[in-house]
Amino acid sequence: MSTSLQDTPNLGAEALLAQPGDAPRATRRRGGRPASERRSPVAAIVRWIALGATALVMLIPLYVLVISAFKPQEEIVRHPLEISPTTFTLEFLGNAVTSSKFNVIAAYGITVLFVVLVNLFCILLSAPVAYVIARGRRKWHLALLLLFVSGLFIPGQVTLIPVVFVLRVLGLINTIPGFILFETAATLPVTIFLFTAYLRTVPRDIDEAAALDGAGRIRTFWACIFPIMRPVVATVVVLNSIGVWNDFVSPQIILGPGSGIYTVTTGVYAAVGEFSTDYTVVFPTLLLAIAPIVIFFIIMQRHIIGGLVAGATKG
Amino acid sequence: MLTDNAPSATVRAAVIDTGSRRRPSVRWGDRLAGLAMAAPAVVVFVAMFIVPMILAFVLSLTDWNGYSLRFDFIGLENYRFAFRNPRTIDAAVFTAVIAVVGTILCNALGLALAALVSAPGRANTVLRTIFFYPYIISALIIGFLWSALLAPHGAVNGVLAGLGAGPVPFLTDPAFAKATVILTIVWAHFGFNMILYIAGIKSVPTEFYEAATVDGASRWQQFRSITVPMIAPVVTVNLVLTLVGLLKVYDVVLALTDGGPAASTQTIVYQILKDSFAQSRLGLGAAQSVVLLVITAAIGLAVTFARRGAERKVTD
Asked: Does B86 sit behind a cis peptide bond, omega within 30 degrees of 0 on the bond before it?
């Protein structure tokens, strides 16, 4: 029995497993409170001024973005920080929604479709291979993991130009399948790494029990192991969704303006790029572009932050 | 949750006989199944990562224009052109400045704020969200937002005018524009560093702080002598991620300044994509990409090794 693989320290898995344990840790820290209560009132005031000022710097741009979406150009320029009921208007937001330059509804639909497809293919491809790697005891299993992990260190911009070449040879350039193929491949390194780290913490007893029940390996995995992977799948879905939703360069280059397919980011670029001084176009368009992701963030905050930490501390 | 899936001991015992008798054929089936499970991901990864990696080197030696599949080999001409082109040199220098200054500011701010808001509590949770939220917004949109706010008639100059201050050329003067690009990146990015530092700070055992408090150490002393050394690995992760990430800055520059004024804020990736797609010189773009890849890998490795010492001190 070589269970030694499970004994090796595994940062990614530890970070993941640490998440549920957040609550008890929080209460333990509260035990350390007396130290902060000893702080002098001056230090407390300085601390709150620093935090308050930083918070304002972070929030005012968002505030201006939101209120400016409901004001005419003159108001935006003259009174940037105020919104008055007399000049309040939904006209420009309406124009942005129905703009011929940037079909927001279609862009939402396309981008959500891309997010769903990339997540689906990413998980379908990564989960089985991560399982094989995590359960493998041979050298080539480790080599396979290293192969995928090497992808973490290759900047997307380096492969983009040759990827255009490959997709052209395959006849997939400027097509949705070509884009999905590239985006899915880009998610593989992180996903396979996180999946493998997680699967190494899942006891082999489950596999053996399933095998004794007569289930083949593929069935064992999908029926018995995959359901256990829910937390790490959630992490990966969060990382991929934000990545695909915000990606600009890949859809711009691989889909290309010629294809007529716009994601939220390439659509915003097409709409705002030309009219960057007409604020009645800029602010409503930007508001429409960030609204879904900000709402998603507010609802899923815990998972998003946990997922990003897990994804980053993998090394 | 795990025990739900484990069959009872009796079932296990009953199946053992048949299992051992059929073992050789099962093994082969398992191998084939393993191959079938690994193959699709390997094929996609090789087609979209490994082959392009090799192709990047090959294409960098050609005059490929991106449209036809025909090209000629022109030796090292692309590299020679790139290293002699003042635009590329300027872009490389500005990218280096962004990476170094941005990394320092992001990590200093991130660590400082992490120390201030890492304790539990509702106010701290809200503050963390406020500091972090720009990170999940597309860099392109961050760029357009600040471009609108900092324009000559934008909100910031509007407020300054109200205070009697003249318009500041945030985006129209080369020196100001460079600073604007860096500060915009820091504004959007430091929250991510902060979140990683908080995760690191929370992993430090509280006993250390309790012991230090008993010994009469001030909070600043505790931060310097306990927190910073204990989170050394997190510092390394933060430095490498930020440095390597900032070398690839593109979207925010495109939206904020479009490389201007007078090409003063072009970054290396901006240059690569402009040469490749606006000028249809993908061979030249590939050559610059290869150089970027080498620099990225070298910096990543160098920082990781340089930080080894700081990390080892903790574990000893």
From this structure: no
Model confidence over B222-261: pLDDT tens digits?
Answer: 888 899 899 998 998 899 889 988 999 999 999 999 988 9
3-state secondary structure of B151: coil
Give the confidence band of B313 by pLDDT, cuts at 50, 70, 90: low
- Alpha carbons B133 and A293: distance in angstroms, whole number: 10
Task: Find the CB nearest A253 among B139, B144, B277.
Answer: B277
Q: Name the CATH topology of A99-310.
A: MetI-like fold (1.10.3720)
Q: How does the average pLDDT of chain B come out, rounded?
A: 86
Q: What angle do CA B154, B159, B162 make, to 5 degrees?
A: 125
pLDDT digits (tens, 9 = 90+) for B37-70: 999 999 999 999 899 989 999 999 999 888 888 8
Which amino acid appears at position A13 of this protein?
A: A
Annotate B283-312 with DSSP letters as a single string. HHHHHHHHHHHHHHHHHHHHHHHHHHHHHH
- Surface of A (190-249) touching B: CB under 8 A: 192, 202-203, 205-206, 209-214, 216-218, 221, 224, 227-228, 242, 245-249
Question: Tokens 């973490």, residue?
Answer: A152
Nearest to A66 by CA among A297, A287, A270, A288: A287
Instruction: Please tell me which of the candidates B2, B119, B293 has its beta carbon nearest to residue A206.
Output: B2
The verdict on ipTM greater than 0.85 is: no
In order of their start, the domains of chain B are 81-315 (1.10.3720.10)
In the predicted structure, residue B15 carries a pLDDT above the cut 90: no
Q: In chain A, what are the domain boundaries? A: 37-90, 99-310
**B313: number of Cβ within 10 Å:** 10
Can you list the pairs that B213-216 forms with residues at least 24 positions away whose Cβ atoms lie under 8 Å? B213/A32, B213/A34, B213/A35
Is the backbone of residue B314 left (phi > 0), alpha (psi -120 to 50) or beta? alpha
What letter does residue A79 receive in the DSSP assignment? -
| Nearest CA among B52, B291, B285 for reference residue A162 | B52
Nearest CA in chain B to A224: B5
Given a contact cutoff of 8 angstroms between Cβ atoms, the answer to whether B189 and B106 are in contact is: yes
Number of CB atoms found within 10 A of residue A275's CB: 13
